[in-house]
Design brief:
The chain is mostly helical. 58% of the residues lie in helices and 0% in strands. Helix 1 (22-46) runs antiparallel to helix 3 (82-91).
């Protein structure tokens, strides 16, 4: 029977456990940045005047896919810094990405 106390994990100043999974945190932060940019593009496109000739479900689906792809490309290539800031916030002070 093991009576040793459970191992303690280091915590960040906010009390969150410092897991050291910076790659997982970075992936989640990049996913959030892509979602944010896709939502931004969708809102910008909603402000444009509609076109009755090319409207329809197929066109709407295609523009949603285009917005999603643009968000992926812009998030990885443009360097907005949203994902970096989020990853830095959640990674903790000792594991800065």
């Amino acid at each position: 029977m093991n009576l040793a106390p459970p191992a303690l994990t280091p915590a960040t100043p906010l009390g969150r456990p410092a897991t050291g999974k910076t790659e997982d945190i970075r992936k989640a932060a990049e996913g959030f940045e892509q979602l944010f940019l896709a939502t931004l593009l969708k809102g910008a496109r909603a402000g444009l005047p509609g076109d009755d000739l090319t409207g329809g479900n197929g066109v709407n689906s295609a523009t949603q896919m285009l917005d999603t792809q643009l968000a992926k490309v812009a998030g990885s290539a443009a360097g907005f810094g949203i994902a970096t800031a989020i990853a830095r916030q959640f990674a903790g002070p000792e594991t800065t990405p």
